[in-house]
Structure formats: C-alpha cells, structure tokens
TrEMBL record:
<protein>
    <recommendedName>
        <fullName>DUF1491 family protein</fullName>
    </recommendedName>
</protein>
<dbReference type="Pfam" id="PF07372">
    <property type="entry name" value="DUF1491"/>
</dbReference>
<dbReference type="InterPro" id="IPR009964">
    <property type="entry name" value="DUF1491"/>
</dbReference>
C-alpha cells in the first residue's frame, strides 16, 4: 500500500521547520508549485560542497529520497548548474538548502 501524497508546500515547510530546530540554517531557495511540484534538497557542508536529494518512492510506494547528485559532492558551481538544468526540465520545482554536516539529512528521511 502506498502512503498518501502530501502537498509539496506542506512537505517543504515541514522539512524547513524540522531542519532548523537545532539552529542550523534552512532556507527556501526556490518556491515551486504548491500542490505537485517536485522537491530538491541541497545538503550543504561547511566547505560549500553539496549533495542533492530528490524525492522518489520505494518499491512499496513509500516516500523516500534519492541522492540525485551521485556519490561525489558537488562544488557550488556544479550545484548551481545542476539546479538550472533541473528547473528548465521542471519549472514547478522547489529547492531547499539545509546545513548538513556529513551530508546527513537533518529531517526524517528514508534514503534509497
């Protein structure tokens, strides 16, 4: 059974709120479609390198996150280019940036 799909604005606000609870930086960089826009989460390390997480579903249909940027962290320039390409493909895209030492998501996340 698949979990219900929540509105994108609700998910984005929840991630930002949960991530900022311990005083870490959590910012909305791009606001997408409130109902059905996909969400990218940028996990930012102190040196400026980034790992990009993208929404996905598990084989069972549960909400999860995929390391969309691959195994190697991106530089700030590579991150900007990645976001530009993705927004050209999906103009309804949300982009969140979260301070994340060790690239650990500061919110409840199932990684696949």
């Amino acid at each position: 059974m698949t979990s219900p799909r929540l509105r994108s604005d609700f998910i984005a606000r929840a991630i930002l709120r949960q991530s900022a609870q311990d005083g870490r930086s959590a910012m909305l960089l791009r606001k997408g479609d409130p109902d059905a826009g996909s969400i990218l989460v940028l996990l930012l390390e102190r040196d400026g390198s980034t790992v990009v997480l993208s929404q996905t579903r598990t084989a069972e249909g549960e909400a999860a996150w995929l390391r969309a940027s691959g195994e190697t962290p991106l530089t700030p320039e590579e991150t900007a280019s990645y976001i530009e390409r993705q927004t050209r493909f999906d103009p309804d895209l949300w982009v969140l940036e979260l301070e994340a030492p060790g690239f650990r998501p500061p919110f409840e996340a199932t990684l696949v």
